[in-house]
Design brief:
By secondary structure, this protein is an alpha+beta fold. Helix content is about 15%, strand content about 45%. The protein has an 18-stranded mixed β-sheet that branches. Strand 12 and strand 13 form a beta hairpin. The termini are close together.
């Protein structure tokens, strides 16, 4: 598919970068190959994924479409959702927006704007599993997993700088324990009670990224489960930013899960041909 004269915005949330398009009129019907070319670092704009604003059809104010860099549509993206909220606030509402709700495959997501940050309220996490032992490279590896809109595995490490994020991350992402869809993989170092640092191998990008919003949430919940450390949990990511994860823990369920951090515009442009 070829497209021409498509206006786009480049945004980033804690280093997780996105191409954003306003597709409320549904005139852009992008296929997987075209999205992958747009997100290509050398042959396109370059991004971890593409966000499209579309009209709602299930009770929200907007529909949030998220595509990974490989062109495949994903259920949800935490940093993408914060950029999406910032986009509709400034580009659609001229900065005059205090809150909104948008539809994702994973459920309804809310957005608010405390100070200079963007805060999203995520759908209820599910499928929490602790202390799962899998074989990776012929060695046992303990992983914890939870779905925070998309599936995540969390591996606790002593030194994040020495973590083999690409090699081990790729093996766990493709492991039969997480088949058929695979999983994102987070490496988590505990810095102090309620303070962690993570690095993430992202499914769909198939590489380490500077940040992953749903991965921050997954890691914060696993940290709470393993240590009992209270929320909010501060999460430092590879890009250098520290974000905040808040939640309410009721019995075995987590509710009112919120992620707060920066979401910034980088530049605006027009794709003449892709």
């Amino acid at each position: 598919m070829e497209i021409a004269d498509m206006e786009f915005w480049k945004m980033n949330g804690a280093g997780n970068d996105f191409v954003v398009i306003d597709n409320r009129d549904l005139r852009h019907n992008l296929d997987r190959e075209t999205i992958a070319r747009i997100c290509h670092r050398q042959r396109g704009v370059g991004a971890d994924g593409l966000l499209a604003v579309e009209p709602p059809h299930n009770g929200g104010d907007y529909r949030f479409r998220y595509y990974n860099a490989d062109g495949g549509e994903a259920e949800m993206c935490g940093n993408g959702a914060r950029c999406f909220g910032q986009f509709i606030r400034h580009q659609i509402h001229g900065g005059n927006l205090t809150s909104a709700t948008f539809e994702t495959i994973a459920g309804l997501v809310t957005v608010q704007f405390p100070g200079n940050d963007v805060q999203i309220g995520l759908s209820t996490p599910h499928s929490l599993r602790l202390h799962q032992v899998i074989e990776v490279d012929h060695e046992p590896l303990t992983v914890h997993s939870v779905n925070t809109g998309v599936p995540h595995a969390v591996i606790v490490v002593k030194d994040l700088d020495e973590a083999q994020v690409f090699r081990i991350g790729r093996l766990v992402r493709q492991h039969q324990a997480f088949a058929p869809k695979g999983t994102n993989v987070n490496f988590m170092q505990i810095l102090a009670p309620s303070r962690i640092a993570i690095r993430t191998y992202e499914r769909g990008v198939e590489d380490e990224t500077l940040a992953c919003g749903t991965g921050m949430v997954a890691s914060a919940l696993v940290h709470h489960e393993l240590s009992g450390a209270p929320g909010p949990v501060s999460v430092r990511v590879l890009g250098g930013d520290t974000l905040r994860v808040e939640f309410t823990h009721e019995g075995t369920e987590y509710r009112d899960v919120r992620l707060t951090g920066p979401a910034q515009f980088v530049f605006r442009g027009t794709l003449e041909t892709v």
